[in-house]
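Ops channel
N.P.: pipeline sanity check, posting one input/output pair.
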């Protein structure tokens, strides 16, 4: 795995005193819950203002990962006093990543105290999921113009200062590190209104989430807290249905009938309650797929017995692109489930997803009367994963 790092020049302890930077003197900002993060640490809550004006693509990606609960429980695995605290590696040791990199969005924004910026490898376009919070203004010389700034701590910097520091002789890596207790968008954490699961998908935000959703980036902890609030929790249910349908199809044991949708939802909720830190892929692959079970005809997005290639083609052509995006996610999950039987340790990359889904549209155009379920099963059997 490629190492994600933040450059560091040795700083003599005591040479630089902690300065009163932007985080301690931030002027009051208009409330913007959709662009505010609550980072809960053992020591207290840190509030981060997102900066889509500086790095729109990075902010969109961070929001997506936050709503999937990816950061909850992750270690601050690399912390250097007077420099920065780094987290966001799913493996916890700076050797893991999600496999989806971002193009740099460098600006002239200084890396002052409380700045939140993206970690990366030697390639400027290698940022993935790791990020860091700057301790002191003195870090600017190593960071300015080299890393993408996407946020600013507006309160709680005193709690960031308390994060356990690492050994500079070991590049700041921390033994028994502090962890993210939770990371949520304020708009989600403070929400008092819950919509029916299907309704949250009928929006542009739902379609965007469907195009980016991955069972390997969603943690169980985000399921219950997100239902009726974010499209991600609803998409987790849909993805699970598709994954299990593919898995059981590969076993010649797929039964889709009048089973209540709630039965599968309840099983997923129970599994996630037992393993809140588990990724959705692991929960489905290791627990829910252990033995074939009947699956409901209806999903939160469409009825598998009635949805045809003609319906998909019409939706993809503009009648309901959001529905087509959601159907694509279900189909990709189906392929993942189908292949997980023979190759349980192999995960299809996001680039692979794009190639697989590109084959659906022309196949459906040629076979308009075929059910979407049947076509997806044929496609899954033909896919080869290297």
């Amino acid at each position: 795995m490629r190492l994600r790092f933040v450059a560091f020049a040795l700083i003599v302890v005591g040479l630089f005193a902690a300065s009163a930077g932007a985080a301690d003197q931030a002027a009051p900002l208009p409330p913007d819950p959709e662009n505010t993060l609550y980072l809960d640490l053992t020591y207290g809550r840190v509030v981060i203002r997102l900066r889509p004006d500086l790095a729109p693509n990075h902010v969109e990606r961070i929001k997506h990962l936050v709503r999937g609960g990816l950061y909850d429980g992750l270690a601050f695995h690399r912390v250097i006093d007077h420099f920065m605290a780094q987290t966001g590696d799913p493996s916890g040791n700076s050797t893991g990543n999600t496999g989806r990199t971002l193009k740099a969005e460098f600006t002239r924004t200084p890396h002052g105290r409380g700045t939140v910026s993206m970690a990366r490898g030697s390639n400027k376009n290698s940022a993935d999921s790791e990020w860091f919070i700057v301790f002191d203004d003195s870090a600017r010389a190593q960071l300015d113009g080299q890393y993408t700034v996407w946020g600013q701590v507006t309160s709680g910097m005193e709690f960031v200062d308390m994060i356990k520091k690492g050994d500079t002789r070991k590049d700041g890596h921390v033994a028994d590190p502090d962890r993210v207790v939770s990371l949520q968008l304020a708009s989600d954490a403070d929400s008092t209104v819950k919509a029916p699961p299907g309704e949250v998908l009928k929006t542009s935000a739902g379609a965007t989430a469907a195009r980016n959703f991955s069972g390997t980036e969603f943690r169980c902890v985000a399921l219950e807290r997100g239902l009726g609030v974010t499209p991600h929790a609803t998409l987790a249910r849909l993805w699970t249905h598709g994954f299990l349908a593919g898995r059981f199809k590969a076993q010649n044991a797929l039964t889709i009938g009048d089973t209540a949708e709630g039965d599968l939802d309840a099983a997923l909720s129970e599994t996630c309650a037992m393993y809140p830190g588990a990724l959705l892929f692991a929960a489905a692959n290791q627990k829910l797929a252990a033995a074939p079970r009947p699956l409901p005809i209806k999903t939160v997005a469409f009825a598998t017995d009635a949805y045809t290639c003609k319906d998909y083609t019409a939706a993809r052509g503009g009648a309901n692109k959001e529905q087509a995006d959601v159907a694509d996610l279900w189909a990709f999950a189906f392929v993942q489930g189908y292949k997980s039987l023979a190759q349980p340790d192999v995960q299809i990359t996001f680039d692979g997803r794009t190639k697989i889904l590109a084959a659906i549209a022309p196949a459906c155009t040629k076979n308009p009367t075929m059910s979407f379920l049947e076509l997806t099963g044929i496609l899954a059997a033909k896919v080869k994963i290297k």
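N.P.: looks fine end to end. The chain has a mean pLDDT of 87.
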